Amino acid sequence: MAKKYRETTIPGQVEDDLSGCVELVPAMDDGNENGSEDREVLIDNLYEKEREMAKVRHWEEHPYSVGLVETTWSDELTRHQQKKCCDDICMSEMEPTCGCLYLSGLVCPLLGAKRVGNMAVLKESVENTMEDSDDEEQGRRRVSRKKISIVVGPYWPMLVCITYPLILGVSLATAIKGIPGRHPLVIAFWCLCTASLCMALFGVGCRDPGILPRRREAHSDPTWRWNERARTYLPRRAVYDPDCAVVIEEFDHTCPW
Questions:
Q1: Cβ distance 248 to 212 under 8 Å?
Q2: 53 in helix, strand or coil?
Q3: ∠ CA 65-216-254 to the nearest 5 degrees?
Q4: Measuring CA to CA, which residue among 220, 175, 208, 212 is closest to residue 193?
Q5: With pLDDT > 90 as the criterion, what percentage of the chain qualifies?
């Protein structure tokens, strides 16, 4: 017996972006309990497909040299909730940033932090700078671009929950047990060293490490090379860091502490 089909259209953004895409769904008898479930699965699959398409578009159009990650921190949280975060903790393909990105998905939306790769941008500004033009006759030109002022890497929970508490805890214990009764110069020197340590750690952990803007056109310098993961040309000492999911100029390593 031939099956009857009816058209099922998808509402909202999916319907607009798919330009009238129509799926033919086998008609189900009213008494068939699987009919409604099949239609819900179909719609969920189409929404998931559209979400993936939007993620790829966001990646390709991003002004910074970033890898393919979730568009927002809320999407990151949803992804970890769906896959059950850290289920792969004993597997060789485990994501090293898994638990930290889950915490980023929880906290960063509350702080209004933007996402660049796997890094959370807490403050941005606009700066005017000079850059080389591709046209040799034009020489250098002045451009305006966003500047990342305060940013934290994917392992910021380690910094906040382990490194800083250790430093402050030891400093507090020293202040209670070892500092009282010392010469004022010793106390002043200790306070200066402790404050300098905390400020230096903040500068290292919360300063732009050198995230490069995306460059889609080949550079005149032959040492520049193409990186497929970030869809950009890289200068000689720039490296794509999979943990931070960004290209960093003169990259050395990512420290989780």
A1: yes
A2: helix
A3: 20
A4: 175
A5: 39
Q: How far is residue 116's CA from residue 135's CA, in Å, rounded to a whole number?
A: 30
Task: Compute the chain's Rg from CA coordinates.
Answer: 25
Written as six digits, the tokens of 58 are 């966001």
Three-state DSSP string of 195-206: HHHHHHHHHHHH
pTM score of the predicted model: 0.72
| Distance (Å, whole) CA 25 – CA 181 | 83
Determine which helix (DSSP H) or strand (DSSP E) holds 150, and give its type and residue range.
Answer: strand 140-152
Q: Would you give the DSSP letter of residue 161?
A: I
Amino acid symbol at 97: T
Contact 120, 76 (CB under 8 A): no
What gap in Å lies between CA 93 and CA 79, rounded to an integer?
17
CA 104 → CA 95, 101, 115, distances in Å? Answer: 15, 5, 10
Encoded amino acid at 25, one letter: V
Q: Write down the H helix ranges in the chain.
A: 12-17, 34-61, 73-83, 98-111, 156-158, 164-177, 184-206
Q: pLDDT value at position 234?
A: 92
The backbone torsions φ and ψ at residue 165, rounded to the nearest 5 degrees and listed phi first, read: -60, -35
232-234 and 239-241 beta bridge pairing: unpaired
Residue 215 pairs with which residues in a beta bridge? none
Q: Show the tokens assigned to 71.
A: 């568009």
Interval 148-157 mean pLDDT:
93
- Label residue 208 exposed, middle or buried (CB < 10 Å: 0-12, 13-18, 19+): middle
Distance separating alpha carbons of residues 80 and 78, to the nearest angstrom: 6
Q: Tens digits of per-residue pLDDT, 54-86?
A: 888 989 899 999 999 999 998 888 887 776 655
- Contact between residue 104 and residue 73 where contact means Cβ atoms under 8 Å apart: yes
Give the per-residue pLDDT at 178: 85
